[in-house]
Amino acid sequence: MRMTNGFTPSTTGDVVVLPPIGDPSAADEMNHRIANSLQLVMAMVSVEARAVIDPHARAVLQMTGQRIGAIANVHRHLYRSHAATHVALGDYLEELAADLEQGCGQGAAARRVLVGADAVAVPPDTANAIGVLVSELVANACKYAYAPDTHGDIRITLNAMPFGGYRLQVEDRGHGRGDGATRGSGMGSRLIDLMAARLNAAHCWQDARPGTRFVLISGRP
């Protein structure tokens, strides 16, 4: 594997390492090590996925890599912002959306992942759970919301609630999904439910007419 600077998801198996910053704190050093270690694991998963012939198994490994990348991005954000206790959730979602968009198709089937976010700060554990949840939702929308040969957008919206907490929405304008359940093996749907429970947040699927909308509401930051 080739070592490079910067930090972006690897689709070639390269290990991408965060560059050092000046005068890092102990928390910065910890987040630096965690982010780089997770990036290494993600690169290894990417290499294994390319060697798998079965398309379903390959897709599972690729999704696993995205989940690892979502957690790595939290520590990357903490490292760059010198934050130890809270993550600027809107900024994090912008970074995550840019990463996810790279894996959402090209050419006529290109998918834009757009973010509109209020200023909301959350603890790192909360950001981790939201990152995994959003990665799962965006991946499902990329695969199932639109016809394979057409482009389409996925929108992530984060609103601060008047008395604390936040409202998170992930929406597409595709053909809809009937009862709103995620497709595939069902693991994604279970993971979304698990992350929502971990966040102690209410969530639901809505018919966006057209498309599908996922809404999560938490009464606490």
UniProtKB/TrEMBL annotation:
Keywords, comma-separated and alphabetical: ATP-binding, Kinase, Nucleotide-binding, Phosphoprotein, Transferase
Reaction(s) the record says it catalyses: ATP + protein L-histidine = ADP + protein N-phospho-L-histidine
Stored SUPFAM superfamilies: ATPase domain of HSP90 chaperone/DNA topoisomerase II/histidine kinase
MF GO annotations: protein histidine kinase activity
EC number from the UniProt entry: 2.7.13.3
EC main group: transferase
Histidine kinase/HSP90-like ATPase domain mapped to chain residues: 108-182
PANTHER family (alphabetical): ETHYLENE RESPONSE SENSOR PROTEIN (PTHR41523:SF8), TWO-COMPONENT SYSTEM SENSOR PROTEIN (PTHR41523)
Name of protein: histidine kinase
Organism: Sphingomonas rustica
